[in-house]
Amino acid sequence: MAIMMNVLVVEDSKFFASVLRKAIEDRLGFRMVLAASRADARLALKEHKGSFFAALVDLHLPDSNEGEVVDDVSANNIPVIVFTGDFNDDMREMVLSRNVVDYVTKNNPGSIEYVLAMLRRLSTNASATVLVVDDSKTSRMQFTRLLQNHNFKVVEANGGEEALKVLAAHPEIRLAIIDYHMDGMDGCRLTEDIRKTRSRDKMVIIGISAYGSNVLSARFMKSGASDFINKPFIPEELFCRIYQNLDFIDQIESLTRVGISLASARQEAERDWSGDLASNPAYYDQVTALPNRRLFIDRLGVAMATARRTSDKVALLLFDLDLFKRINDSLGHAAGDGVLVEIASRLTSCVREGDTVARIGGDEFAMILPQATDIDAVAKFAERAVSMIRTPFEVDGRDLFVTASVGGAVFPDDGGDLEALIQRAETAMYRAKDGGRDAFQLYAPAMNARSMELLSLESELRRAVDRSEFRLVYQGKVDMESGQLTGVEALIRWQHPTLGAIAPNDFIPMAESLGLISTIGTWVLREACRQAMEWRGKGLPPLCVSVNVSPRQFRDCDVAEIVAETLATSGLEPHNLELEITESLLMQRVDEVASVLRDLRAIGVKVSVDDFGTGYSSLSYLSRMPLDALKIDRTFVTDIPDAEDAAEIVGTIINLAHSLKLKAVAEGVETVAQAMFLHQKGCDQVQGFLVARPMAPAELISLMDRRLLSII
Ligand SMILES: Nc1nc2c(ncn2[C@@H]2O[C@@H]3COP(=O)(O)O[C@H]4[C@@H](O)[C@H](n5cnc6c(=O)[nH]c(N)nc65)O[C@@H]4COP(=O)(O)O[C@H]3[C@H]2O)c(=O)[nH]1
Predict the structure, then answer these.
(1) The EAL domain covers which part of the protein (predicted)?
(2) Which of 138, 155, 607, 675 has minimal CB crowding within 10 Å?
(3) Eight-state DSSP code of residue 341
(4) pLDDT tens digits along 514-550
């Protein structure tokens, strides 16, 4: 079917409309259909149904609220670029929550050029087909939705074998996104098989995995993948990689058209860029101008080969920024990019000539230090780098604190080949994270056994759901005035057949990235409500039971509906159920989340914000959300009463909660001194080892009529 190259422009300024018409029609040769109001836009969508490949939408229109036209256009499956005057934070959040392709501020220099480049890209996408290979239907659907937002045509395959058949039937496919973990043929095998077909040597293949990023990335690249992304990722990262790779292949294709072979075309393309190497998107990250993952793998290979000849050592350091996603979620991607640029410049400033600093993933950096004979010096250097990252810096007028977990491994002592060395450095990095983050850890052989265990956990986690290997423990919450139990928090444990009880921090992130969290979360909710009713059946007083709900559950299923259904089935009164949500959820897709929270409030269920203080909540959002309590994060409670900063923060959160008419709950209370400080500051409830450890349901019964805390 021929694609009509029409662009819908919803714009009430005659000046901008005429500038855009000139640019879109004269320079790009597309037809522009203008609508000066929401009413006009609706008419145009009806009259020209199916003919728009993109829409440019101004948010300030005489007859609509911000966002309404975006919704009208998106409902017709047309990719939207928001093109508007000044943006404030609320508008940015609103736009991002609607999955628009991008937003552009009209008066910025170069904004028209940028819009034209995007329209050109969207028109090309309209004829480009992408293959998504994943054996999880939810993941496939998510990729498809994202790609269709950018105008790509998408075909899906449920596994390796099906993918090969689809490729044979669709020669037009230019790009494949392939998950690593699939039953039968894994993603790397599939990539190898695809590359064996001559006609597919120029296809872009992007490998995806939820776990074990750097080792797998090396494996994927060796199998012939063009790039690799770690799940979870932000859509911007995915599209940045897709476009960089498609652009690179376009350059190669234009060279091969004039008779140059693929290998020499690659060299040619590199030479072409050599004047300004750092802007070559195939090898350099476009945000920080550092070498990207592809060039990093290449340089590490060269450093190791050289060291093998000269009997030298090479140190590899992997940096993972702690909780970086929160900065992106809360402050926006521009602030996130600012942080990355600053970190890149700090890391670059401390290396010697011949060392490599690379950005190898969304929040991952790497350093290659050749001739690293003195391991103590490497460790000292890495610790200095960790403390440099920790120094606060200003982004958009705010002071931000970023920390990194760093793992190091040395060639050839810790690993004799690329894959092994990366895997060891990564294992050490995870150990630094597990140990409390903001630290450097050098690889030690004993770590490997644990990391191999965790890798194999992934497939077992899928099976654990069917085999009912989960159980819940309950931790009491105590009222500060009466000292009595007021409620319990349900905490999940995975009872692994050989490894024993596994803590949630070791598998919940994995469950989230594997798309299993909704199934697990629904089980937790049902089991907690059932348990609450069982206690009641034994004649115990009613207790409010709290359940953690991960942000992914809000995205993947209708939480309010599941809650209503569970309450109806179990018979638990709504006011005896509380959902604990994360602070970062409040900052994502604000309107959608607020509406689910309102539905929950209408049912009568309570909602509290967990780990409060670790994100960057905006007060305006907080006051708009129907909430019941703020739970002060354990990291602050640990440091009270002695550390002044923590004491101040805790006091402020308690006051904030009270001024928003919410309860303040402190978690992780371990000492009497902490409890006394919290009481003095007016905290309403406490939870922590001081009053009760998480325990099995039968044990909890003994606490129910005891005074658990006595402050005065
Ligand atoms: N050091 C110290 N620790 C204390 C103290 N009091 C409580 N804790 C621990 O702090 C965590 C409190 O839960 P959370 O902040 O909601 O943090 C939870 C929650 O975010 C998540 N989680 C647990 N169960 C579920 C679940 O069913 N669904 C989801 N989505 N997440 C869950 O995993 C996190 C960790 O859970 P746990 O390992 O059970 O760890 C629990 C608890 O055992 C104390 O005085 N000192």
Answers:
(1) 454-708
(2) 138
(3) H
(4) 778 889 999 999 999 999 999 988 888 889 999 999 9
CA of 491 to the centre of ligand 1 (A): 6
Name residue 178's beta-bridge partners.
Answer: 133, 207
Residue 372 CA to its chain's centroid (Å): 34
Strands 663-666 and 685-686: parallel
* 375: Cβ contacts below 8 Å, ≥ 6 apart: 313, 315, 410, 442
Closest ligand 1 atom number to CA of residue 549:
30
Q: From residue 499, how far is each of 140, 391, 423, 516, 662 by CA, in Å?
A: 32, 39, 22, 20, 41
Q: Which domains does the chain have, with CATH numbers?
A: 2-124 (3.40.50.2300), 128-282 (3.40.50.2300), 284-296+309-445 (3.30.70.270), 520-703 (3.20.20.450)
Q: Whose CA is nearest to atom 42 of ligand 1?
A: 694
The residue with tokens 């080969």 is 305
Read off the pLDDT of residues 372-415 as tens digits, 9 standing for 90 and up: 888 888 998 999 999 889 888 776 666 777 889 999 999 998 98
pTM over 0.95, yes/no: no
Q: Measure the CA–CA gap between 390 and 400, rounded to whole angstroms.
A: 9
CA quadruple 206, 209, 213, 215: dihedral, nearest 10: -80
Q: How far apart are the first and last CA of the chain?
A: 79
Residue 468 is encoded by which pair of tokens? 């009912």
| Residue 614 Cα distances to 322, 403, 627, angstroms | 12, 13, 18
Q: SS3 for 81? A: strand
Atom 27 of ligand 1: nearest residue by CA position: 492
CA distance 35 to 8: 7
Q: Are 152 and 129 in contact (CB under 8 A)?
A: yes
Whether 286 contacts 343, CB under 8 Å = no
The rounded distance, in Å, linking the Cα atoms of 176 and 202 is 11
Angle at 396 between CA 620 and CA 404, to 5 degrees: 100
User: Positive or negative CA dihedral for 316, 218, 426, 418?
Assistant: negative
Q: Which residues contact 168 (CB under 8 A, 6 or more apart)?
A: none
CA distance 338 to 336: 5
CA distance 501 to 498: 9
What is the reported pLDDT for 533? 95
Ligand 1: nearest atom to the Cα of 512: 30
Going by CA atoms, what residue is nearest to atom 31 of ligand 1? 548
Alpha carbons 317 and 260: distance in angstroms, whole number: 38
Listing DSSP states for 583-604 in one string gives HHHHHSSHHHHHHHHHHHHHHT
Tokens representing residue 396 in the block? 């958009």
Ligand 1 center–CA 611 separation, angstroms: 10
- Token pair, residue 487, equals 């409620």
597 contacts 565 by C-beta, under 8 angstroms: no
Give the list of residues 6+ apart from residue 362 with CB closer than 8 angstroms, or none: 230, 233, 234, 237, 324
- The predicted pLDDT at position 451 comes to 54
Element (H, E) at 209: strand 204-209
Ranges of residues in the chain with a pLDDT under 50 are: 1-3, 255-278, 712
Length of the chain counted residue by residue: 712
Which residues surround ligand 1 with Cβ inside 6 Å? 475, 491-492, 503-505, 508, 521, 524, 548, 550, 580, 610-611, 634, 667-670, 688-689, 694
